Amino acid sequence: MRTLIYGSKKHDGERSKRILVAGATGYLGKFVVEELKARGYWVRALARSPRKLDHLLGSLDEVVKAEVTQPETLDHVCDGIDVVFSSIGITKQRDGLTFRDVDYQGNKNLLDVARRAGVWRFAYVSAFNGQGLRHLDIGAAHEDFVDELKVSGLEYTVLRPTGYFSDMGEILEMARKNRVWLIGSGKHRVNPIHGADLAVTCADAIEGGDTEINVGGPQTMTWNEVAALAFDVLGKPAKITHIPAWFMWSVVRLIRLLNRHQGDLMAFFTTMATTDVVAPATGDHTLEAHYRSLASRS
Ligand SMILES: NC(=O)c1ccc[n+]([C@@H]2O[C@H](COP(=O)([O-])OP(=O)(O)OC[C@H]3O[C@@H](n4cnc5c(N)ncnc54)[C@H](OP(=O)(O)O)[C@@H]3O)[C@@H](O)[C@H]2O)c1
Question: Is 48 in the pocket of ligand 1 (CB under 6 A)?
Fold first, then answer.
């Protein structure tokens, strides 16, 4: 039986679809909840730590407590739901679970429950060039789930975004400490995306449309330009050190022997920094505005 934490609002079945947002406590999920509510949908959020949703309680219609790696907690979470959106995945969590446990099996458990409950559409967030990252645990876990989704019989969309603004904040943090360390030459390009811009594409996908969507933000920059922007916003002279890619790959091999999960993450970031990560652009949030907002907060 699902644990209903919050559920005060009745559904007006004539007016709106019912959406389950899994991952609502995360960076992207929060923006997706806000975008769906702005469009008038009835939204249930799934969270393993519902207290993290306190700031959204005024807008959410229901909150259920569940841990996707424990199928017994998922009973009934999809009851009455039309569309499931999942941005569940491991990013910085350090709770001992693996990419296979969460990104693959956790989402698969949710998909199984969704099918049994008669959900007709499932939107899932993988990563840009996910198919090319199958040699990494993180890429394989995402893409093996995508394979399950494709044969599920449900209507589906796989979103493949570039890097999020949440991760770009780390460059600003390094600049605050007077030196930005970049992997490789810094000449590879990226068009990172703000969660609010990506949430618009996610909500469009929830409403229907293409089965696979590559998406990035409005500005394409090299990593050197991103670092220079961070220093500029802080009003500091730019100090950038490039770590040679060959050195990083040697470190990755060593770390993998000691801690496969951390080694895999490091391999993922090294790949992202040493290839162009540029997808069709959307949105209007600039990295400069994001950095200025972060800089003004401290
Ligand atoms: N960050 C990027 O630049 C980037 C780029 C492309 C694609 N992506 C992918 O986009 C997805 C969302 O990213 P994000 O930055 O929004 O991640 P995030 O902030 O870490 O959010 C992940 C969400 O998954 C939930 N979760 C993790 N393990 C769970 C479990 N065992 N049971 C239930 N919920 C669990 C988290 O809940 P808790 O709050 O309880 O941990 C959180 O709500 C991820 O799959 C990521 O790989 C990220």
Answer: yes
Nearest to 126 by CA among 117, 115, 116, 136: 136
What total number of domains does the chain contain?
Answer: 1
Model confidence, pTM: 0.95
Residue 206 lies in a domain: yes
DSSP single-letter state for residue 7? -
In a domain, 238, yes or no: no
Distance from the alpha carbon of residue 92 to the mean position of ligand 1, in angstroms: 8
Q: Is residue 87 in a domain?
A: yes
Nearest residue by C-alpha to atom 17 in ligand 1: 26
Q: How far is the CA of 142 from the centre of ligand 1 (A)?
A: 12
The CATH code of the domain that includes 95 is: 3.40.50.720
Instruction: Give the orientation angle of helix 27-38 with respect to helix 195-207, to 10 degrees.
Output: 60
Residue 69: which domain range?
3-162+194-215
Which residues partner with 189 through β-bridges? 222
178 inside domain:
no
The answer to whether the CB of 199 falls within 8 A of the CB of 29 is no
What does each of the 298 residues of the chain score in pLDDT, given as a tens digit?
467 776 766 665 544 689 999 999 999 999 999 999 999 999 999 999 999 999 887 889 999 999 999 999 999 999 999 999 999 999 888 888 999 999 999 999 999 999 999 999 999 999 999 999 999 999 999 999 999 999 999 999 999 999 999 999 999 999 999 999 999 999 999 999 999 999 999 999 999 889 999 999 999 999 999 999 999 999 999 999 999 999 999 999 999 999 999 999 999 999 999 999 999 999 999 999 999 999 998 7
The enclosing H or E element of 183 equals: strand 180-183
- Verify whether ligand 1 is closer than 6 Å to residue 115 (CB atom): no
Our answer on whether the CB atom of 166 is closer than 6 Å to any ligand 1 atom is yes
| Torsion angles phi and psi, residue 28, rounded to 5 | -70, -40
